[in-house]
Specification:
single chain; mainly alpha; 1 helix; elongated
Length: about 80
């Protein structure tokens, strides 16, 4: 009868110091994350803007502008002359 009983399981819980999270900790973390995201957006926007300006200047320098498909309309008041 004693042979069918499983061996006891012993769990040892280590006491760890508990740090309390305050509202100021959460606010500082949120402001820090917002600052990082804002900085990344500014840097990526500047890079993309620089690439677009450089591409436009390069097209103008190499005269690679596509032909304009817009027709110029000359409208004179009072009919044709």
């Amino acid at each position: 009868m004693f042979a069918l009983q499983p061996a006891p399981i012993i769990v040892r819980v280590a006491e760890q110091p508990v740090e309390s999270t305050t509202v100021s900790d959460i606010l500082v973390g949120a402001i820090g994350l917002t600052g990082v995201l804002l900085l990344a957006a500014i840097v990526l926007g500047a890079i993309l803007g620089g690439l677009l300006i450089g591409f436009k200047l390069l097209r103008a320098k190499l005269n690679l502008d596509p032909p304009s498909d817009a027709d110029t309309l000359r409208i004179t008041p009072g009919g044709t002359r």
